[in-house]
Amino acid sequence: FDGKLSSAGSVFRRDDFVGGPVTTATIRFPPRHIANALDEEDQTSKHNYLKSLGRIVFARGPWIESHPLALSYNYPGRNNATKSSDEDEIQCMTQALEDKSSYKTLAFGGLAKNRGGTSTFETVSGMIFPSSSPSALSYLNDSSSRVESWHSINRRISVVAFGGRRISFLSGGGLWSNSSTNKNGKDTAQDDFVSIPIAKVGSLTRSYLEVSDWIHDVRLLNVELQQANNQSAFLLAMGMTNNNCEIFGFYSSTQDEQETLQPTRLQCITCDVRCITYSLSFHGWDSTSVLSSDEQLPSLAVASGTVFSEIVVWDAVVNSQEDENDEESLDTLVKRWLANVTAGANIIIKASRIRRTSLHRLKGHLGSIFSVHFSTCGQYIASTSDDRTVRLFHLQPIDESQTEWKLIWTGWGHTARVFDVSFAYSSHALGEESSHPTLVSAGEDSTARIWSPLQTQEVSHPLRGHDCESVWTVDVCDGIIVTGGNDGCVKLWDLDSRIMQDKDIRTFVVPKDPPIQSTHSEEKITTEATTSKPRKKQKKKQKLSGQLICGMELFKCHRLVVATRAG
What would the pLDDT profile of 119-130 be if each residue is shown by its tens digit? Predict the structure, then answer.
């Protein structure tokens, strides 16, 4: 369905003056610290309320838009909404949570006048969201025990947008970032997207950072400073088209009520497989976790989809192989950078360049790899290609010390190129992988398709609804499928209601027609006509078990009229 606002009509329809195809779309929910503040013992009511607070965020050309998922929801525990007894705080938090406004901004800054979003360098190709959660059940996951401070970068940046060679940082947009706070440092309502300026040279700033090559994927890792002084720092990994991984360090400080990000290029990590990639995906570096300054960096895996029908799997960051005494190691560079940030000294670090060996080269596709994604647990890789297939790889052990990726499933069904794929989890699961993962793919045949690779094949009818050929993006958030197409629209589908059970499927063959009773005169005319002409050799046609169907329609509830090729 198309989301609608009573005052603005269809909010997902492309505007006449700006915009373009929807290149990325998702749904975000309140973060863990907000969900934990709600005092409600009934988990079902709490989940439904958090789900109603979700926001649809998508990009059309250079524009980013944020819209409410539901216009209203009556929360049963509204009178006792939080654990605080401060009525002003409760009112402030309720106002911030139930923000039903829509927001729109240019991802990389600039004036909206005479900008149609036709430049490839201005098109947003992806986004990550440090201040929000991909599921309304994320508060049940307490994997990170460290408590974040209010000025943590996870709470101050709502969107990290990237496209072409540009990357920008935004706050606001109704995504629960606390760039605007009250006197007690609590979250307040944010009216609009605000671009966080990035320092360039001296006192000059810019609304985006431009790097050496096109960006495929981004990961953010928050770093805890020992002496914060209203500062925050984070590491940013960017996967490039040339199969490199660039590591940047950013720290922010607020001066005269203006927050500025100071970037420092730390390291360029190069894979030994030198090729152009059409897709790349990271696994690791969760933006919700906080890294202490004395901890080792967590590992960061990369899967690159090449133009040579291969998927190259390699490790960009390996904490077990880093030598702490090596001045070129990433751990050493990060500690030196953090020491300068804490001391307030001028940061002059020469970026190092290291080379990594590829671990696996996955084969099976017959064309360029358009998308590649890790599952949450990192045990599966799903990929799509211009060979019209969706493929699933599984990491399996060879012996006690070695593993390998094996192609375990190939999905045929799309009639054109397949552009994107996403792992799907129901609204009752917190991103856990079952033994039978579910996939949702989108392609150039105007459809999105749901697959259960290890149980059946396609488990639902194709999702049709876009008024275009190309469906560029698909994501699954808390049991809701989000698709974006070339028509500038975002479509939402319920995953659970779309999945069909095997017991509900019936298959039957159309019976053959009864023989036609012909008269004696007709048989005589036919015999004379056939004997007057020489017979030609006729090729034997393969017999079919049933008739070819060219049309059908239901009538009287449970009766079916079928039209066949035989007439």
Answer: 556 899 999 998
Q: Say which range, 11-15, 49-53, 440-444, 482-486, has the weakest mean pLDDT.
A: 11-15
Q: Counting beta carbons within 10 angstroms of the beta carbon of residue 292, is it exposed (0 to 12), middle (13 to 18) or buried (19 or more)?
A: exposed
Mean pLDDT score of the chain, rounded to an integer? Answer: 78
Element (H, E) at 339: helix 330-343
C-alpha distances in Å from residue 15, one per residue of 8, 153, 272, 488: 11, 33, 45, 8
The Cα 142–Cα 99 span in angstroms is: 27
> Contact 500/506 with Cβ under 8 angstroms?
no
Q: Are 394 and 454 in contact (CB under 8 A)?
A: no
Taking the C-alpha atoms of residue 172 and residue 127, their distance in angstroms, rounded to an integer, is 14
Exposure string over 498-524, b if 16+ CB within 10 A, otherwise e: beeeeeeeeeeebeeeeeeeeeeeeee
Among candidates 427, 470, 429, which has minimal Cα distance to 447?
470
Model pLDDT for residues 485-502, shown as the tens digit of each residue: 998 899 999 888 887 654
Identify which of 125, 123, 177 has the alpha carbon closest to the alpha carbon of residue 151.
177
- Residue 438: name the closest of 364, 500, 362 by CA: 500
Q: What is the mean pLDDT of residues 367-372?
A: 95
Please provide the size of the chain in residues: 567
Cβ atoms of 380 and 431 closer than 8 Å: no
Residue whose token pair is 């009511």 = 45
Q: Which DSSP string corresponds to 432-491?
A: ---SS-EEEEEETTSEEEEE-TTT-SB-S--EE--SSS-EEEEEEETTEEEEEETTS-EE
Which residues lie below 8 Å from residue 502, measured CB to CB, with a gap of 6+?
A: 456
